[in-house]
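Proteins fold reproducibly. Look at a sample protein:
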Amino acid sequence: MLKLLTRTILPLLLCSFIWTSIIADPGKIVELEKRLAKATDTTRINILNELSGLYASSDLIHADSLAREALNLLDHMSYPEGKIINFNHLTYIKGSLGKYDIGLDFSKRQFT
């Protein structure tokens, strides 16, 4: 299972983030940040997840902060789709920050 994660799934996740960073639109970030100010519940989590994915290509610290805020909200509700996206982003962010053990932990949590 670990080989599958490190050789197949993690590279696919990295490719998806690279693609997201190529098509990231600065205007979209501004629009999402405006919507975030008023958002609640799953809408807030969705916006935080989207922003953390967009920032992951340019500002890992800010991306991590946004992803952790979403994770804190997810701890208090049942929203599996939001958790999978959040764990995906945290896997990439933590790995990019050199925190490989934490990144691998989030990667494994996607499948439980």
